[in-house]
Amino acid sequence: MNAGDIARLADVGRAAVSNWRRRHEDFPQPIGGTTASPLFSLAEVEEWLRRNGKPYEVSPGDLAWQRLRASGDDLRLGELVAAAGDFLEGRPSGLRPGVTELLAELADERGTRDAFEFLCERYVEAHSRQLAVTPAELAELMIRLSGGGTLLDPACGIGTLLLGAKAARGQELSGSSARIAQIRLRMRGVDGRVVAGDSLRQDGFPGERVDAVVCDPPFNERAWGHDELAGDPRWEYGLPPRGEPELAWVQHCLARARPGGTVVILMPPAAASRRPGRRIRANLLRGGALRAVIALGAADLWVLRRPESGERPPAQVLMFNGELSGVWPAWLEFQRDPQGVRIIDLLDDEVDVSPLRFDRRGTPAEFLAEQEGFRAAASSLTGPELAVLDEPRDLNMTTVGELAKAGLLAVHHSAMKPGEVADQGEVPVLSGDDVLLGGVPSGRTGSAAGQIVIEAGDVVTTPTGTVRVIAESGAVLGPQLTLYRLDPARLDSDFLAGFLRAGGGHSRGTSRLDARRTRVPRLSLPEQRPYGAAFRRLAELDDALRATTRRGERLIRLGLDGLASGQLL
């Protein structure tokens, strides 16, 4: 186990583990790994924690993961995770009996799919430098922008971008990652096929056309096959320069989309302006293939469309620079009324399609209005009145899992896939972005069996730990969300939401919420309510602070623009 595993085991931060190693000469010595990421014996760590009086808990999931990881070399960890998936699906795995017994117990506790997802999370955490996984909210946005249908991801990793598809095709250089992706799709009932291999050199789906392509390709890969692929028919918009592999991925994706099909691909921001790629960018614009460039900070999102034969190229392209939550509304507005940046204005010597170039500059009046709004918002930032105790209260604790077993609450996981959410339909859908921003349901869908209808007072969480108490009934639970329905005679919604937000449900070293381990005091309903009121006030402060931060960022930008342009003194 690594330092993150130890921190999770003892429910402390990674810094605490580092301090133990420095201050305690008897702390276990590494038995493997590297100097930067040493590995320790679980048995020795458990013995040290017991000897030093430090409480710890090995959950069935953690125990199964540690035993699986210890059953082979860390270089083969992906193969071990794939073998665990084989076992969970009832196929021969080659794993030792002690490991399979723990995996069976984990599946009994969580269900087959959630058990395998848990192992995948631990695998990504253990190999975070080698495995690049698209964040859940960004993956959901990419699928929405793609329009759904049959999806292809030619650099699919462990399959994250394909999980919400109705039908999927994937290719991945790593054989073990391709196996893991295939298992994840199969466990979700997705009609999918994933092959191993280098998509640029050995396309696994030659001649096949799909409705949409989504891709988070490797950046800055110089050895992508420039020389051997010089005459490849996929380069319809020009031979990608040796140092522009991302433009090779763009054209590969376009070649696999049907006419009228969509491509959504993550790109390094420099790909929008580097001189060697300007001819291909110009051809993508002239041909009507490039439809939007969306700045997301560390990366840009390019939205492309494979032109249909004989159609007239569009005159405008969307350039968006803003928050992730604003991308989808901006895209919908552009679809209804394509008022963006004129393509003819981009076809100069540079062909720079960086969205930051086209940020609208504000007026002095907007600066004054924003300044007044910021001052008013900042002056209203107050939290609850909380007393400081000389000694912490000794509370009798339980967990959310125990509360569920006792019937005080029920846990519901959404079975809806991102592709099922649209901008039309008679049923409103609460999305992860809506939960994050505290907004009203922004999606729509048709009525279908299995939908979870939200009731006022329900507590809803996202995979990354955002928690909301829902005020209004009627919407259905969106993709990747979890709902907690409480017995109002015994549990206060704000009380539970506060303890979920406090971090007790976070597994140390990962961003995902593991509510089964969230510790909650055993208190009567009248005792819960003051806690709930304080937690609610802190949640309101959090929302107000986010809004004030957005105002402040806009005030700063308007101030910089105004000073630079001579409009402000």
UniProtKB/TrEMBL annotation:
It holds the Pfam family N6_Mtase. Residues 114-297 form the DNA methylase adenine-specific domain. One of its GO terms (molecular function) is DNA binding. InterPro entries: DNA_methylase_A-5, DNA_methylase_N6_adenine_CS, SAM-dependent_MTases_sf, Type-I_RE_MTase_Subunit. SUPFAM superfamilies: S-adenosyl-L-methionine-dependent methyltransferases. GO terms for biological process: DNA restriction-modification system; methylation. Keywords: Methyltransferase, Restriction system, Transferase. PROSITE patterns: N6_MTASE. It comes from the Bacteria. PANTHER family: TYPE I RESTRICTION ENZYME HINDI METHYLASE SUBUNIT (PTHR42998:SF1), TYPE I RESTRICTION ENZYME HINDVIIP M PROTEIN-RELATED (PTHR42998). This is SAM-dependent methyltransferase. It comes from Acrocarpospora pleiomorpha.
